[in-house]
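Weekly puzzle thread! Below is a chain. First person to post its structure in token form gets bragging rights.
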Amino acid sequence: MECVKKGFAGYSDYSSRSRRKEYWYFVLVMIIYNVILTGINTAVGPNQIIQMIIGVLIFIPSILFELPLAVRRLHDTGRSGWWMLLCLTGIGAIVILVFCCLDSDPQNNEYGPSPKYGNQGQGLTES
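Winning reply:
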């Protein structure tokens, strides 16, 4: 649950790093949330106002919480958050998925120390 709390708490943090575990637990919770709301939306039937409200309840958390977390996950692998623009293309989402599956960069990078390995990478330089 600590990983999910960090995901919700970092909704405005686009500058640090997030571990792979934190990212995937948060994605799992958001998938469950979306499935529940989609089920409610289907059960409601043709009531367009309720369907619109549920659609907003699905869309807003995705943008507010998942986007910054994905950017921090990219930072943890040593990539810029600008890579998220690849999601605007069809094949780019697969590239981002692969990047999010990669292990953390053990060394400190421009986004801070590794949340997985701590400060052990401090002072190391890439060769």
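Puzzle host: Confirmed. Bonus trivia for everyone else. Confidence is low (pLDDT under 50) at residues 123-127.
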